[in-house]
């Protein structure tokens, strides 16, 4: 069973150094434990998905440039998330305002070679069965 993701859930990128909270903007009527439930469309950079501290991916042009300037020593740079599409749904038939819900086991790819996952769903009681 997967828990629904709610506003304030923590996300983590495999190439980042810190978690980021999710912001729900795709809908505001359906609540889970008094918080808006997220959908797979809550994937916009900065609007929904915040920065993950420092980025360590050499696919990120800022990291590649700084690493080249440091003669090949990996030099992380501030993360600017660049999601590659929307969240991959695991419960596509469970809808929130007509959109597939976001559950704790969903993943999203980053254009800079990382993957974004949900580390804390933001609530503990409402399952998507």
Attribute tags:
Tumour Suppressor Smad4, two-stranded antiparallel ribbon, single chain, mainly beta, four-stranded antiparallel beta sheet, 129 residues
Please provide a brief summary of the model.
The protein has one helix spanning 61-69; strands at 2-3, 10-13, 20-21, 31-32, 35-36, 54-55, 77-78, 95-96, 99-100, 107-109, 115-120, 127-128. By secondary structure, the chain is mostly beta strands. The mean pLDDT is 95.
SSE layout:
Blueprint: E1 2-3, E2 10-13, E3 20-21, E4 31-32, E5 35-36, E6 54-55, H1 61-69, E7 77-78, E8 95-96, E9 99-100, E10 107-109, E11 115-120, E12 127-128
Antiparallel strand pairs: 1-12, 2-3, 2-11, 4-5, 6-7, 8-9, 10-11
What oligomeric state do these chains adopt?
A: single chain
Low-confidence stretches: none
Judged by helices, strands and strand pairing, the structural class is mainly beta
The main sheet comes to: 4 strands, antiparallel
| Total domain count | 1
CATH C-level category: Mainly Beta
**What is the CATH third-level topology name?**
Tumour Suppressor Smad4
**What's the helical proportion of residues?**
under 10%
Per DSSP E runs of 2 or more residues, the count of β-strands stands at: 12
Q: What would the principal axes of the Cα set say about the shape?
A: elongated
Mean pLDDT: 95
Q: Output the number of helix runs.
A: 1
Helices and strands, in order, run as EEEEEEHEEEEEE
Q: What is the CATH architecture annotation?
A: Sandwich
Please tell me how large the radius of gyration is.
16 Å
Question: How far is the first residue's CA from the last residue's CA?
Answer: 6 Å
Task: List the strand order in the largest sheet.
Answer: 3-2-11-10
Strand composition percent: 15-25%
């Amino acid at each position: 069973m997967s828990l629904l993701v709610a506003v304030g859930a923590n996300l983590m990128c495999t190439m980042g150094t810190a978690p980021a909270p999710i912001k729900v903007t795709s809908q505001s009527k359906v609540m889970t434990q008094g918080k808006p439930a997220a959908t797979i469309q809550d994937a916009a950079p900065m609007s929904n998905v915040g920065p993950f501290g420092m980025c360590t991916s050499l696919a990120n042009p800022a990291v590649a440039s700084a690493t080249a300037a440091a003669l090949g020593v990996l030099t992380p740079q501030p993360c600017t998330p660049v999601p590659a599409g929307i969240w991959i749904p695991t419960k596509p038939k469970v809808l929130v305002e007509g959109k597939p819900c976001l559950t704790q086991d969903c993943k999203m790819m980053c254009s800079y070679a990382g993957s974004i996952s949900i580390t804390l769903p933001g609530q503990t009681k409402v399952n998507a069965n």
